[in-house]
Amino acid sequence: MIYALIALVALIAAVAAYFLFFKNRQTAELPPPPKKSEPPPRPQRLPGRAVVADTEASDASNSPAFGSASKTGSNLAPTATPITPSQAPASAGRPPRPPPSRQPERGPRDIEGLRRGLSKARGSEGFFGRLRALFSGKKELGAEITNQIEEVLLASDVGTETTKLLLDRVRETLVHGDLADPEKVWDALRAEAERIVSIDGSSGALELTAKPSVVLLVGVNGAGKTTTIGKLATKLNASGKKCLLAAGDTFRAAAVQQLVVWGDRVGCEVVRGKDGADPGSVVFDAIKKAEQSGVDVVLADTAGRLHTKSNLMAEMKKLAKTAEKALPGAPHEILLVIDATNGQNALAQAREFKEALPLTGIVLTKLDGTAKGGVVLGIANALHLPVRFVGLGERPDDLHEFAPADFVEALLGRDAAE
Ligand SMILES: Nc1nc2c(ncn2[C@@H]2O[C@H](COP(=O)(O)OP(=O)(O)OP(=O)(O)O)[C@@H](O)[C@H]2O)c(=O)[nH]1
Ligand SMILES: [Mg+2]
């Protein structure tokens, strides 16, 4: 009996040992437990243009007139570009997003408004009118057409270099026989004009993601800097941005007064110094004030004339440095204001400013006052800087955000009656 009991206990122990042994083997053969999940990879950054990614939505991107535009300009320091989803590692596991748009959000198109503003350039003596006259009523164009087009382009302030580029491209695009076809030549001209003013695929809206963003307006005297500040403040106010104006043109007392009048009209505070104050100190104080009072955008006016030209460039450089001292990263935009009625002279001045300063764009004013209009093409091509706005009058709402396709449609598009 005792032996039977011992045998039974031994059997139970053997069975238990057998199960324990196999359980351990199975555990040992299981794959290792999953590691704690790793954080998703940070977006890899490549050198290149700065683009406001859709993941970095800012309040600026909600504004139709001042969307999340890409900052461009060949002379800008290279900055980071988030990689597009097609380049992103598949392991990110998120559904691919559409690539960030390089075109800023825009308000409603206003081709008719632009067309009215460009009525001189569209008239029979203007850029469009004279070009149309070469084509109208013709079923076939003669061999002399390219010379005639060249003449009109040069007379319309397109400039020699840009005129040559435009015509070479038209010749390249069209096969020989098509050069006699008025429709095809006209369409090719329009397409090339649009290509020339589309700098790096972007124009128009300002990049105003920093708070405060500092925008410096520079240009020769009478170009329209102060008026453009008033118009820009009007636009920004309408899109819910709080602005502050800095009276950085301390060269003339009347200039300060002119800005104060705009400030009153738009409802923006104006920071001004004493007569003859250092423009840098005015801009510095304005930026500090903007930081303290939750201002979104500082629009800084500058002098267009000092005692000598070289002083002006040195002064502008100093001003930009002072803005940077007041707020790292500032000025976020340096806009060169150019009077379109100055034609090819404007181009020479613009080159000087571009050499001295890291310009981010152009505002072309007084396009309503010229029949030439081609200066837009010449300047955009020669400076390789995007046109951000065009001025088409003296009223607060006479500033149009520049969109290449709309502009070319307004300048060179045919009327419905044609
Ligand atoms: N027709 C028209 N006139 C404009 C436009 N922009 C500015 N002006 C006028 O051009 C003149 C000069 O403009 P300002 O804004 O004073 O020029 P500024 O660059 O500040 O000149 P300075 O202060 O002397 O350096 C003014 O009479 C403006 O009303 C525009 O787009 N169209
Ligand atoms: Mg002024």
Descriptive overview:
The chain is built from 14 helices and ten strands. It has helices at residues 2-29, 111-117, 119-122, 127-135, 145-155, 160-173, 182-197, 225-238, 253-266, 279-292, 309-326, 343-356, 375-383, 404-412; strands spanning 45-48, 79-82, 213-218, 243-246, 269-271, 297-300, 333-339, 361-365, 387-391, 399-401. It has an eight-stranded mixed β-sheet with strand order 5-4-6-3-7-8-9-10, with helices on both faces. Helix 9 links the parallel strand 4 (243-246) and strand 5. Helix 6 crosses helix 13 (375-383). The longest helix has 28 residues, at 2-29. Residues 19-106 have low confidence and may be disordered. The structure holds guanosine-5'-triphosphate (GTP) and magnesium ion (MG). Guanosine-5'-triphosphate binds at residues 219, 221-227, 249, 255, 304, 337, 365-366, 368-369, 391-394, 398.
Q: Termini separation (Å)?
A: 121 Å
- Rg calculated over all Cα atoms: 31 Å
Strand content bin:
5-15%
Give the helix level as a range of percent.
40-55%
Can you write the helix and strand succession as a string?
A: HEEHHHHHHEHEHEHEHEHEHEEH
**Strand order in the largest sheet:** 5-4-6-3-7-8-9-10
Question: What does the main sheet amount to?
Answer: 8 strands, mixed
- Global geometry: elongated
Bound molecules: guanosine-5'-triphosphate, magnesium ion
- Structural class determined from secondary elements: alpha/beta
Our count of helices gives 14
Q: Name the poorly predicted regions.
A: 19-106
Number of strands: 10
* Average residue pLDDT: 77
